[in-house]
Amino acid sequence: MKLYIKYMVSQRCKMFVRDELEKLGVNCISVELGMAEIEEEISEEELETFRKNLKKAGLELLESEKHILVEKIKSVIIEMIHYADKMPRVNNSDYISEKLGYNYTYLSNTFSDVKGMTIQQYIIRHKIEAAKELLLYDELNLTEIAFKLNYSSVAHLSNQFKKITGLTPSYFKKLKEKREKNLEEL
């Protein structure tokens, strides 16, 4: 049996879900971003307890087919951007469609209906979050970050970065340096 969980986007969330299921005496086959697979059916009472415990942690058990599909789309995007060593060098639409086994138009329409934004807008937001993280780590320069996140150029990354954050990547990086300098002066 598969349980689909909304807002499950980190390793910590995965550990929490596994722990909560184990507290109920339920054997987990696997816990992935947005989904837990368990060996046996779970009683209504156990499901309600699990639902309440998830809610306390800011997570939500999904039951609508549309919402489940949207969580699957989000999981593919999050893995693609934040956890893969390199972004795939194919169109995002082809990659997502292939991973989930659905026509991209169907996926896109479902996602937009549920989230109120396009898949592409969601991808851009996550790519900018990844870029911010990489800028703060200070291990890669902007050219390397643009390549890693599959941007056609540094200018393209910079334009999207400014559009989303209101800051240029270099100014964003300077803010970090300024904060560090201010902390040293305390």
Structure, explained:
The protein is an alpha+beta fold. The mean pLDDT is 91. It is globular, with a radius of gyration of 19 Å. The chain has a four-stranded antiparallel sheet with strand order 2-3-1-4, with helices on both faces. The protein has nine helices and four strands. The relative contact order is 0.09.
Report a brief summary of the structure.
The protein has 186 residues and is α+β, with helices and mostly antiparallel strands.
Provide keyphrases for this structure:
186 residues, alpha+beta, Alpha-Beta Plaits, Arc Repressor Mutant, subunit A, 9 helices, 4 strands, 65% helix, globular
SSE pattern, N- to C-terminal: EHEEHEHHHHHHH
Q: How helical, in percent, are the residues?
A: 55-70%
CATH topology of the largest domain: Arc Repressor Mutant, subunit A
**Structural class, please?**
alpha+beta
Strand order of the largest sheet: 2-3-1-4
Gross morphology: globular
Number of strands: 4
Strand residue percentage = 5-15%
Q: Output the CATH homologous superfamily of the largest domain.
A: Homeodomain-like
CATH class of the largest domain: Mainly Alpha
- Largest beta-sheet details: 4 strands, antiparallel
**What is the number of domains?**
2
Alpha-carbon distance between the termini? 55 Å
Q: Give the radius of gyration.
A: 19 Å
Helix count? 9
